[in-house]
Amino acid sequence: MRERAVSGHPDRPGRTPGVTLPSVTERKGTTNESGVRAERQGTAGRLPALAHESPATAFGDYRAAFHSARLPMALLDGDGLIIAANPAFGELLGTDPGRLTSAAAADLADLGSDPRLWTAYREVLCGRSDRLRCTRRLKHPAGQTLWVEVGVEPLPGGERFLLTVADSSDRHDLLARVRHLQMHDPVTRLPNRALFFERLSSALEAASFEPSGTGRIGLCYLDLDGFKAVNDTLGHRVGDRLLSAVAQRLSRCAERTGGRGGDASRGHLVARLGGDEFALLVENSAGTDQVAELAQCALDALQQPFDLAGQRLSVSASIGVVERTAAGTTATGLMQAADTTLYWAKEDGKARWTLFDPERNAHRMTRQALSSTLRPAVDRGEFTLEYQPLVGLGNGRAEGVEALVRWRHPQFGTLAPNRFIALAEENGSIVELGRWVLEAACRQARAWQLERPAARPLFVSVNVAVRQVWDSDLVADVAGILAATELPPELLQLELTESAVMGSAGRPLQALQALSDMGVRIAIDDFGTGYSNLAYLSRLPVSVLKLDGTFVSGFRSQEHPNPADETIVEALVSLAHRLGLTVTAECVESAEQAARLRRIGCDTGQGWLYARPLPPERITALLDADGRTDDF
Ligand code: C2E
Ligand code: MG
Ligand code: MG
């Protein structure tokens, strides 16, 4: 292999692309005097004889083709110097083709500024590679930028080379325009979602691998409050103008706080992600404070009302702020965090920015994980029931038990109902879960009855959620379960909260009536925490009031009695009795509380004084003890 000194090697590989074409006169003296000058004298701009070409006609044809070709071309020697350039090449560079002779092709076609390209070019000239193809940006002496497709390949014989430089500026400009349209939002002229994600991904990549930056990234995810109302009441045209005005203010804000908004240049990128959602991206973030400051600036910027075609409009926005190290962060992860945080900002009252909180997020993730696995967990049998005695205050004996559900979660351990009942109500799985609880409790109560036929049977009290009354046929479920388990209806009590029965008309009322007619007792759970309309309750088929635990806790100790609570409970109990209701007190924890409740005339008590919620086998022992809870 031969090695050659190729002309045009950059002094500094990697200098800025977009070279300025050298003036040919400048280059004249720098080139090899002998061979080159001869060619210049006799054949300036003409094709010299090729070594292996002998027939004069063929040679003449090639020369004519070279001369009249519309593709800019030049013939190079083994050092990369131009032997001859055709008129099209001269035209491209705005010069006489003859003046290009002996110029270094690498300078003219910018093959030396990129080290990798330079190596590839040398490989061709040294015969180690067949061809080179690349796109370069050149600066025309007249000032304009030229985009060109450059090709270099050896001619037969391997001593000389053909350089082609096709002008692709028009195509390049067209592609750039198309890309701009694709990547920008026509309403606000801001970068759109696609460009935002492109920038975000490359920013994350750069920040993770570039030791020079801060290695951190920040994002403000903004959503206008109540924008839909603007669109709905004033029309989409005004809505669009508002978005455009908002975009301008956000861009100014991004400029003021350090970056440049509005386009994809380096700095804070402002993008419209769709609808009334905007994103402000802080590359190389200096920390949470910087991103929070940007968020505050955005809120302040939107505070002044907007004047739009005679309409004065005030808007506010909610912003989710996320700031973290770029390493290990993905675009999707960052956006999810921003989305959650934006939701918190809305939930916390709108017109504010909220910072991402990992703890709050973990809680949300657990909620989500629980919520999505509730339904399959019922099928997998992950729930169990515990039973807490309901004790007659007069004789101290258990008359019934309340069934309380627990979730034996394979990952999170045993969960109390306050962790999942509300979720089950939200996603509707309470219907299946409630049905399971009802059936398991009735089956258990019947089993106790059969196991201890001589003992006084215990009734079972089952909690029923509002949605079970509305979304399922509770009456049919209860009837079916009583029939299947053979539990007498009078041994079943259903606990509903005040909110479930208050204002009930139509379906809930009919359901309560049908259940009561069946012989099932209805109790109002946590009484006193809701509307507490006793007069109304008395008109419903309700037979038991379960006084909320806060009343009993309010009794305090003998040294510090709270007469107000005691008076209220006394009045409630006597009123309930007059209306034909019995009263159960929740959360009885001390003998003193029990004594006062007994004196007041309360019928039943439930609480740690008697027993904690127990597994079913302990209740069997309770039956053996004739319902006495002393040892529990
Ligand atoms: P609840 O129906 O008012 O049940 C009484 C709650 O008070 C139970 O909590 C019980 O463990 C607790 N408790 C009992 N005695 C005392 C005491 O002396 N002091 C104190 N501080 N607390 C006492 P748990 O088991 O965590 O149940 C909480 C709530 O979950 C229940 O309140 C009920 O509303 C709901 N729940 C439980 N099981 C079910 C169910 O199967 N279905 C539905 N829909 N809700 C249920
Ligand atoms: Mg209850
Ligand atoms: Mg209760």
TrEMBL record:
Basic and acidic residues bias spans: 1-14, 25-40
CDD domains xrefs: EAL, GGDEF, PAS
Gene3D superfamilies linked: 3.30.70.270, EAL domain (3.20.20.450), PAS domain (3.30.450.20)
Positions of the GGDEF domain: 215-358
Alphabetical list of Pfam families matching this protein: EAL, GGDEF, PAS_4
EAL domain location: 367-627
Positions of region (Disordered): 1-44
Protein name: EAL domain-containing protein
